Amino acid sequence: MSMSLPTETQILVVGAGPNGMACTSRGRYESRSSLVYPRTLEELDTVGLAQPLLDNGISSKGVTFHGDTDTLIAVDVSKLYKLTRFPTMLLISQSDVEGIFEDRLKREGVNVIWNKKVVDMASNVRGVEVSLEDGSSVVAQYVIGADGSQSTVRRLSKVDFQDPDTGAPYDANAFPSSALQIILADIYLEEPLPPTILRDAVSWHLNNRILFCPLLRPARGGPEPGAPPTSYWRTAMVVPIGTTTPQHLSLEYIQAEVAKRNPWKQRLHVVKTTQAATYRVRLAVASTFFEKLGTGNILLVGDAAHVHPPTGGQGLNHGLCNAISLGRATARETRQLCRDCRGSESGVAGNISPVHYIVNAALTAAVASRTYPATRFPTRYWRQ
Q1: What is the DSSP string of 195-230?
Q2: Is the dihedral of CA 170, 182, 301, 284 positive or negative?
Q3: What are the per-10-residue average pLDDT scores of the chain (384 residues)?
Q4: CA R_g for the chain
Q5: Cα–Cα nearest to 20, from 360, 309, 312
Q6: Is-contact 108 375, C-beta < 8 A?
Q7: Which distant-in-sequence residues (6+ apart) come within 8 Å of 294 by Cβ?
Q8: CA–CA distance, 265 with 164 (Å, rounded to integer)
């Protein structure tokens, strides 16, 4: 049975990935980041999500930079043990992060429903009126845009989104010929591997323009039974400027690129790829992260507010910290409204649903309900 939005609510979050959970499509490869930093784990711990991630990832020392196979510099975050409870760089795929958050939301009573799309926003005496593609609408006091780099919320708010260095507007369909490209692929490598390959850290081989990041094997989707022993890795390969890559990155293509960049003499055999895509390295920042629309408020988080290169995990880590901080702020702002809502017999407060309804999103709702546990309302969640 299909659930519908209320006509009015306090907070509406648009987006369904780990930043709220920021908007992703099942048909696209979106599992880009694989690094979660100590500060992000500290923030996640405040909402009970650090340990589930640690249980499902690899706690690494950090990142090591090589020429070929010789070590140039090692960034060892384990030395931060006096400064943080989490002196580790967690290696975990973004899709696993989303899965863990989704499981948590289900336990919180959040129902996941697909195919809801925001098409318009307008000023309303009670806040921001958000119109959906199916003809329904909802009025919210706070609209949080966590809907990715092509944010509908940002576009409808007329907020500029530009490269901070050049001022060029961000356009998914316009790529300068000078744009650097990076191939990201999740692969199974046949064992045994070269003895010097790092299994407890990310390794960048600069001369060969290739990165290796160990990951835990997913529960499903591995090589066929009877295949040789394998281990699971994320690899990133820098593509020379001006080089064209195929639209579909086949197993054969990934094997050839890995072999071409292999810094060891020992053969690397790619048994299977689970996901692979080419990304162009671009930067963009919103001209503002907050906008008023009538009596309502619009806020941007994650890729809707800022985009980064796919390496280094900046987008995931900044976005998660955005979402948790915003969850605290909106919880503080709405706590009194929830009390007024329970105590009011008439007027605006009495007509506002005390439920955090979400279109294509969720983390902020989980954060908010965790922040004020005395107000534990069931939350509904739509994802595009």
Answers
A1: TTS-SSSEEEETTTTEEEEEEPPPSSS-PPTTPPPE
A2: negative
A3: 68 66 32 79 90 93 90 93 95 80 73 72 92 88 87 94 86 63 93 93 94 85 81 92 87 96 93 89 88 91 85 81 81 63 39 38 34 29 29
A4: 22
A5: 360
A6: no
A7: 123, 124, 125, 127, 128
A8: 42
